[in-house]
Amino acid sequence: MIRFVEETGSTNSDLAAQVRAGEAVHEGDWLVANRQFSGRGRQGRKWFDGSGNFMGSTVVHLNERDPNPASLALVAAVALYEAVAPLLPDPRPLLLKWPNDLMYADAKLSGILLERENAAIVVGIGVNLAAAPELDDRKTMALSALGPAPDRDLFAQSLAASFGRELERWRTYGLDPVVRRWESVAHPIGTMLTVHPPGEEPITAAFAGLTTDGALSLRLADGAARVIHAGDVMLANEEG
User: Fold this and answer.
1) How far apart are CA 147 and CA 135, in angstroms?
2) pLDDT averaged over consecutive 10-residue blocks of the chain (240 residues)?
3) Can you say whether the dihedral through the CA atoms of 59, 195, 41, 142 is positive or negative?
């Protein structure tokens, strides 16, 4: 079920509050807002509230047999890719950047935020369907730059179905198929990335794929390997 609301502070916050209160929030249910006045992205960034864009959240209830919950970032990214690619006249420039940014060439199309609430993960997704923010530190774009803006409600249905399929695959077959699919639609091996690990100086290195647990693998200039489990990542040509 998809529940649409005219306005709210944050769809993630709303679902997290319901989980804390013990209310029934079923997997497969989504909350989608026309406007968010307190939407946020990773690392506390404010999320752009553009009319006609998709802003919605869903909940995953964890069980002891599930793969590492952090890998849901990859699940959400693959699901979003699968929902957006059929809408494009040419999907070849569409790619994923670790862990869950959807890019069109070097411009960001979306944002995904995962937040833990007890034994649940709230998954929030925002997609620039009709309009994109102007940011100082990176390029952005909306799907409307490539043709008519997708219908928000139809897109919500497509994304909900795609996320449900990828979640079931993650639970049934584990993380390996998700990692392989993510890598198949990511920027090529050898792409130069600038990574900002928490509390460290930025690292510029070549993309070397993902590890089996979904972490980012880099090849440094001296040939050494470096694995990144958390950090902000930018393509070498992404800065605005």
Assistant:
1) 22
2) 93 95 94 81 55 94 95 97 96 95 94 94 96 84 94 97 98 97 96 92 95 96 94 78
3) negative
CB 149 within 8 A of CB 132: no
Angle at 113 between CA 50 and CA 57, to 5 degrees: 70
pLDDT score recorded for residue 51: 79
